[in-house]
From TrEMBL:
GO biological process, one term: carbon fixation
Pfam families, sorted: PEPcase
InterPro entries on file: PEP_COase, Pyrv/PenolPyrv_kinase-like_dom
Domain of life: Eukaryota
Gene3D superfamilies with a match to the protein in the record: Phosphoenolpyruvate/pyruvate domain
GO CC terms of this entry: cytosol
Single annotated GO MF: phosphoenolpyruvate carboxylase activity
Official protein name in the record: Phosphoenolpyruvate carboxylase
């Protein structure tokens, strides 16, 4: 009643006013229900949802519990949180976790919608290229793609002897034909959020963006218009849909009821391609346009000193609106009017292709077996063919020109006649509509192929017998992508030639681009297995067959040179062949290795594009690569022709994962490429491209983040040196392709910005492969985010390809390695020996580590062997999960502060440091190593200054980490000489930060890691730590403080940025509370474990759920996983 009185005078008579006539009167059309944010919508819903949940859980007084939860969630200080938690029971605390979980996700979706909504208004316009700009990172800035193209053209034209325009354009066309990326989804088990819940969140985001766009469209529209009412109701329906999804996700389980299978992991990935299919054609078209625009702009810039060109251009341009499009069209008209011939560069090759480890990653996952590989090949083929079928079905009713109105090509008519002979039973084909006729026949071929794949798929998961070849069915279907592409092409050319250009370049061109990108296989599947298992499989088979190469030979004891000699003889042995009847005699692992390789062989013979690269994990020698090639020879993935040359459609690459592997990679690649047989194969069969895979995650785990960053950069540079040397020595033109095995979180080498990650590479090859994991794959949840992601990757790649290194890059890299080695020493001291045991006991007692196998979010085991938790056995992903959950992040920063503290003292006092080097040289009889430096007076001058023992011991430990004492002495002495160019070591580091991308990226990532790290939360978890554990924890805090000190100096600022990936803050009360709740449930689990099985099991379930929530939130926010 007060509502009415507030709006009326005191003598207002409700009975007289609100009479029958008033209620029958139609009032003004209402505006849509408000939706200011997803978080506010949840707040509106939460009271009823929480009350229902508490009642279902049997809470006696739900109102009291609700009030406690509300006060807890509004608490700002740690003391307030602790006080309220003392009053709460476990069920109420559990409910608080669920609320925080959904609130954090919805807040993140609010941010994503805000960032995605505005750009989507011009995603289909040329202004999209502006989204590639990032002007915050100096050497990590991404340029516009068109600007990178123009930079390349200008540099090539100005720095080539006797260059002319045709030569420059020829090189530009060569660049466009060779620059490409392959994005490889690894399907690693690092996504703790259930797929069911992720689908809820994806749908919420999609509908919320749609709501924002539709709501914006009402601006200025008369409310009485029928379209206004239609859109209003659509908005209200979208709001209801969003509420339903929020309700659904809150009422769903976070924990999976059963362990996730590799099949489920694969299906989770497959759905992302529905989005990718929709965005790839647009990106390809737009890049083609940018290349064309760059071409004309550069020609105009070259001709700008010709009066006749400038005069004509000015005359035409004055009559335009001076837009970007007007400028381009005017250049074309000017060139035409002056009869200047042009040949526009074509972008025919797919700019980005896709690969996967699904069905092929056998490194440590016992569930990826031959039958699963079988299933994966066929599932992918079926999935992409069904998509093509949907497109062709739509095109049948879209491309409808009639021969009564236009001409068509003879090629099209001949193609239709051939199809008519194959499908005489199709009667509803109109002869006067040839395009529809051709598309109808294409539809039939696709339907037949889909049906065959569906039938074969029913058997695939149950047998190791290769089945990919069974999907072929002759001329009534599509047996390869070329036949489908030919059918599309004949329609496309006819339309272009006969006035149907717009129809050709619409949905038909989209289909053409999709088929050139995905073929009829969808993604090439890589085969990955450890070198040890490959070696065991090969030796076992050779021993069973009593091959002469292994008779009376202890192969494992042979030196590397003799292993290579044996393997090359086996590889080229004309009598070598595989006997499948011997498979039953093999051990389990060897049997599955050969069965899986036979599945890959069958797939390759059916469609070579369906099989990707063969990756050797833990590759440490040339023999590891040759061993894999022998296995491929046995299974007909590789052949030896009559001239003794290798024939294969697939690359073989070592994966260099640890610091030691990265150091050895250039040596291994040099030795391999010096083998004539291998070199000839790469030149003749692999388009002169040789792939090398660099590991990021394991090198961080193995050596520390700073060391990993330094040695990944070093390996890229050294491999280029090797490539250049090989080409010069043998007069060849081999090119490298770097395969980047980058993780997707800070403890695994990724700082949350894919553009900066790509630009941080010391060397970027024209073609590159990049692994994509958890966070990357989430970017394919909507078309807007997928397009933005692909655009960022390609724009950064082009920027990195065309840039030049700083003139002092060699000095910078030597110092980067120096500090990386010092960091590695500190890291090894933490994670090995007695201190290492204490460090892992902290994870074992206070993190999710011991219950990870019970969390049911992964098919792959946590450890490489058994359940032994140490730095060598634990996998990189679970390790980073533990660090994210505890907010410790040790591997992402540890050793950095010590490295700079020790290293800068050594470099600032060169004479004292050189005295130590002389002492070490004398001790090891290696004085000759310093002979070339003895004439340097700055190094050898007499001085009374000395380093303290800690610094001296650090230098000695550093020298011992080199391959030889002599090499270590020379390397450090060279650094002392380098230091003469700069007033001090810190000024050198500041210059490196400004001008050397790998170093800048590394420093920025350490800053983000410290922004996410929380001493308060670490202390919360480790209240019950013992004395040794507390000593280790104090050491990590001291290292964090030391790292903070030097990061501020290197970046020349007073304090560090406290934000983590994506600019988010991680010291919010909400996150602190979540960690407090987790600490509570961990302690409860420990206590209840002693009170019987029932109490232990309940406490374990709650503890695991809360810990899984922490991981899910950390993944969503960008710092975990």
């Amino acid at each position: 009643m007060s509502f009415f009185l507030d709006q009326a005078s005191t003598d207002f008579n409700p009975m007289a006013h609100y009479n029958s006539e008033w209620f029958l009167n139609v009032l003004k059309i209402d505006t849509p229900k408000s939706l200011t944010s997803l978080e506010s919508l949840w707040s509106e819903m939460s009271v009823k949802q929480v009350s229902s949940w508490l009642n279902h859980q049997g809470v006696k007084d739900a109102d009291v519990a609700t009030d406690q939860i509300k006060r807890l969630l509004n608490a700002k200080t740690s003391e307030q949180m602790d006080q309220i938690l003392e009053e709460m029971d476990d069920v109420s605390a559990y409910c608080a976790v669920r609320i925080i979980h959904i609130r954090i996700h919805l807040c993140d979706l609010d941010k994503m919608a805000a960032s995605t909504h505005k750009p989507t208004k011009h995603l289909r316009g040329r202004s999209m290229d502006l989204s590639a700009v990032d002007n915050t990172g100096g050497v990590l800035d991404t340029k516009l793609i068109i600007q990178s193209f123009l930079d390349y053209l200008s540099y090539t034209h100005n720095n080539t002897t006797n260059s002319n325009l045709p030569d420059t354009m020829a090189k530009f066309r060569e660049l466009l034909s060779n620059i490409n990326l392959r994005l490889v989804s690894t399907v690693h088990p690092n996504e703790t959020e259930r797929s069911t819940n992720l689908q809820h969140y994806d749908y919420i985001l999609e509908k919320y963006i749609e709501w924002k766009r539709l709501n914006e469209s009402l601006t200025g529209m008369p409310s009485q218009a029928s379209e206004y009412r239609t859109r209003r109701e659509k908005l209200n329906q979208l709001r209801r849909d969003i509420k339903a999804e929020i309700e659904g996700v809150f009422q769903s389980d976070q924990m999976r009821p059963n362990p996730i299978s590799v099949e489920s992991e694969g299906r989770r990935l497959m759905q992302r391609y529905s989005v990718i299919f929709n965005v790839v054609p647009f990106q390809q078209k737009f890049i083609k346009h940018l290349a064309k625009e760059a071409y004309y702009l550069f020609i105009a810039s070259v001709l700008s000193d010709k009066p006749e060109f400038v005069s004509k251009f000015s005359e035409l341009y004055e009559h335009t609106k001076h837009t970007r499009t007007d400028r381009l069209h005017t250049i074309k008209k000017t060139l035409d009017s002056l009869n200047i011939a042009t040949v526009v560069p074509r972008v025919d090759m797919p700019i980005i292709k896709f690969g996967t480890w699904k069905g092929g990653d056998r490194d440590g996952n016992p569930f990826v077996v031959a039958s699963f590989s079988n299933q994966t090949f066929i599932e992918q083929k079926l999935f992409v063919l069904e998509h093509y079928l949907n497109i062709v079905t739509q095109l049948v009713d879209k491309i409808t020109p009639s021969t009564t109105q236009i001409e068509v090509s003879d090629d099209l008519l001949e193609s239709i006649r051939s199809d008519r002979a194959l499908f005489p039973y199709i009667e509803n084909v109109k002869g006067v509509e040839p395009y529809r006729a051709k598309l109808r026949y294409m539809q039939e071929k696709l339907q037949n192929t889909v049906q065959r794949c569906t039938e074969v798929l029913k058997k695939a998961g149950e047998t190791t017998r290769p089945l990919m070849s069974s999907t072929l069915l002759g001329p009534t279907g599509y047996n390869d992508s070329k036949s489908l592409q030919d059918d599309i092409e004949v329609i496309y050319r006819s339309l272009i030639k006969n006035g149907g250009k717009s129809q050709a370049r619409s949905n038909l061109q989209d289909l053409k681009i999709l088929v050139s990108t995905f073929g009829i296989h969808m993604c090439s599947i890589d085969f990955r297995q450890t070198s040890e298992k490959n070696r065991e499989a090969m030796l076992e088979y050779l021993q069973i067959t009593q091959h002469e190469s292994v008779q009376n030979v202890n192969y494992s004891k042979l030196p590397e040179s003799e292993k290579r000699e044996i393997l090359l003889k086996v590889l080229t042995d004309p009598k070598l062949e595989f006997n499948p009847w011997l498979i039953p005699q093999m051990s389990k692992i060897t049997k599955d290795t050969f069965q899986s390789l036979l599945v890959f062989s069958d797939a390759s013979a059916t469609d070579s594009n369906s099989v990707g690269k063969f990756i050797i994990s833990m590759c440490q020698n040339v023999s590891d690569i040759l061993t894999t090639m022998v296995l491929m020879r046995l299974t007909k993935l590789l052949f030896i022709d009559s001239l003794g040359n290798i024939k294969s459609n697939h690359d073989v690459t070592g994966l260099f994962e640890t610091i030691g592997d990265l150091v050895n990679a250039p040596i291994i690649v040099n030795d391999l490429l010096n083998i004539k047989l291998i070199r000839h194969h790469i030149l003749q069969e692999r388009d002169a491209r040789f792939t090398v895979m660099l590991g990021y995650s394991d090198s961080v785990r193995d050596g520390s983040s700073l060391a990993s960053d330094a040695f990944v950069a070093r390996t890229g540079l050294e491999l280029k040196r090797v490539k250049d040397s090989i080409n010069k020595q043998h007069d060849t033109n081999i090119n490298l392709v770097y395969y980047r095995g980058r993780g997707d979180t800070l403890p695994r080498g990724f700082g949350g910005n894919i553009k900066k990650a790509i630009l941080s590479q010391s060397i970027t090859t024209l073609g590159e492969d990049h692994t994509e994991q958890n966070r990357y794959l989430r970017r394919y949840s909507s078309e807007s985010s997928a397009l933005d992601h692909l655009w960022n990757i390609f724009s950064a790649h082009v920027s990195a390809v065309v840039r030049e290194l700083h003139p002092d890059w060699e000095v910078f890299q030597r110092h980067f390695e120096f500090f990386g080695r010092l960091s590695n020493i500190a890291w090894q001291d933490l994670v090995r020996g007695e201190k290492g045991d204490a460090y892992f006991s902290i994870l074992d007692k206070f993190s999710i580590l011991p219950v990870l196998p019970k969390c049911r979010f992964a098919s792959r085991p946590v450890c490489r062997e058994g359940v032994k938790y140490d730095i060598d056995n634990i996998r990189a992903i679970p390790f980073s999960m533990d660090l994210a959950q505890m907010r410790e992040f040790t591997s992402a920063y540890y050793g950095t502060g010590t490295a700079f503290e020790v290293g800068i003292q050594l470099l600032n006092n060169v004479s004292a440091t050189y005295k130590i080097l002389q002492s070490i040289a004398k001790e090891h009889g290696a004085e000759q190593a310093l002979s070339t430096f003895e004439s340097n007076q700055k190094l050898t001058k007499q001085t009374d200054s000395t380093h303290d023992k800690q610094i001296e011991d650090g230098l000695k430990a550093l020298i011992e980490r080199f391959d030889s004492v002599e090499l270590g002495l020379k390397s450090v002495a060279q650094l002392l000489v380098d230091s003469e160019k700069y007033p001090s070591a810190i000024e050198l580091l500041q210059t490196m930060f400004t001008n050397y991308a790998p170093f800048r990226y590394s420093i920025e990532n350490k800053e983000m890691a410290l922004g996410v790290r929380s001493k308060e939360i670490v202390d919360e978890y480790t209240r019950e730590a013992n004395e040794l554990q507390r000593k280790v924890l104090k050491g990590t805090q001291d290292e964090a403080d030391l790292t903070t000190k030097w990061l501020t100096k290197i970046q020349n600022k007073s304090t560090l940025d406290k934000s983590g990936p994506g600019g988010r803050l991680y010291n919010t009360p909400e996150l602190r509370l979540l960690h407090k709740l987790q600490g509570r449930f961990l302690n409860n689990f420990t206590k209840q474990s002693e009170k019987g099985e029932v109490a232990r099991k309940r406490a374990e379930e709650l503890s695991i759920y809360v810990q899984m929530t922490i991981l899910a939130v950390s993944e969503g926010l960008g710092f975990g996983g």
